[in-house]
Amino acid sequence: MLIGYARISTDDQNLNLQMDALQLAGCEKIYSDRISGAKAVRPGLTLALEVARTGDVLVVWRLDRLGRSLKDLLKRWKL
Questions:
Q1: By residue range, what is the domain housing residue 70?
Q2: Which pLDDT tens digit goes with each residue over 29-61?
Q3: How many folded domains does the chain comprise?
Q4: Secondary structure class of 68 (helix, strand, coil)
Q5: Which of 9, 32, 36, 69 is an active site residue?
Q6: Which CATH number fits the domain that encloses residue 30?
Q7: Fewer CB within 10 Å: C terminus or N terminus of the chain?
Q8: Is the pTM of this model over 0.90?
């Protein structure tokens, strides 16, 4: 199953743009957060990861929706 995750951090960003793109990509479930990337707690991302099962794929609109920087991504996802 494709699971989508969208995040906006400012009011001038468009969550619907990301949600529409994730739907077009075939995501069956989509979770979102309206929160800064600097915040460690992201309820939507947490829920998306909790429902994911072996073989599922997490889809994001852009990689920066998962973290603020490459260093943050590597640390958060233990890559």
A1: 2-76
A2: 999 999 876 667 889 999 999 999 999 999 999
A3: 1
A4: coil
A5: 9
A6: 3.40.50.1390
A7: C
A8: no
